[in-house]
Each structure stands twice: as structure tokens, then as C-alpha cells.
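Q: What structure does this chain adopt?
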Amino acid sequence: MTREFLNEVYDARDADETRALYDDWSDSYDKEVGSNGYATPGRCAEALAQFLKDQTRPILDFGCGTGLSGLALKLAGFETIDGVDLSEEMLAKARAKRLYRNLKVIEAGADLPVIGGDYAAIAAIGVIGAGAAPISVFDDLMSALDRGGYLVMSLNDHALQDRANEARISEWTDCCAARLLFRESGPHLPGFGLNSNVYVLEKM
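A:
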């Protein structure tokens, strides 16, 4: 029987267990999420394109996985994309798609390999939430952006059950450290019965 990772990916685990799960999932990831109508990457890319008009400027795809998010960004017109992920096996699949300028393995909790001004935008598509990265990653991503930079991200239904996740976004916008430009609910994995919110924020 083929292992169906969507039945276990949203369970709580530590960083090493998360890396191992995604390493194991790498061979079947595109097929499994694709068969369930994975819509969030395209929705995020289209949302970012509404605000980042110069599509030659570089983007960091944080938690890029097998490159489905990079593909969506390319299809939306973005030309220069770097990717980082915990899983070397996932990155191998992304590398084969030949979408990225650079790809790099990162460690959970490590400083981002970003210097101020490196990226006009950061994408965190399907990254934050149950069984994945904690909401503290949101702070790291926003801090890595220069003023005027954009963060496009998603929170699926599981992530939205934890009110701390949207509350952290509000903390940034309420103190005018960021401006919420876009928020929209829509399909995430409709074949699996999940929706997601897509957000675009501008660093102030």
C-alpha cells in the first residue's frame, strides 16, 4: 500500500522528525498534493504579482520543498528565485525542475541566509502551521526584509485553528511595522477538504 503522507503531515513533531518525513515524502509529494488540487502556490504567486510589479527582482522561496511554489512564482512572471528548505531530498526534486537560481539546505531555528536588501519579497507558502514551522518564523521572515519588501504567506485551516498565528500578523500591523495588503480565503487542498488564507504584507 502506498503511504499517504497527508494523513500524518499535520501531526505535531520536532524539526528532525519533520525533516525525515519530508525526505520520505519527496518521491510522491508532487503526485499526492497534485491529485488533491493543491491550489495555494498559484494563489500566493498571483497575489504577490499584484503588488511586486518589477518581476526581475529576486524572491526567496522559504520552505520551497520540491519546487511547486517556485513553479507557481515562475508562471506568475517572477524571474529570479532562490529556495531554502530543511529537506535535502525535497531540494533534489526542486533542483531537477531547474526553476531556481540557488537552492540551499537550512537548519530549523538557524539564522536565515539573507542580507538586508537581498530580496524584494519572501514567499512562505504552506510553511507555517501544525506539523511544520512555528509562527516565530514569521518574525524571522519579516525581520529579514528591508522596508518596502513583501511577504506572501499562507495559513491553512489547521494553522488557523491556533489563533496565535493570525494574532502574530496583527501584532505587526497594529504597531505599523507592516501593512496588510491582501488577505483572501480560498482552496488549499480541496481534494483533502482543506482551505487556506493567503496574505501579502509590506514591511514598513
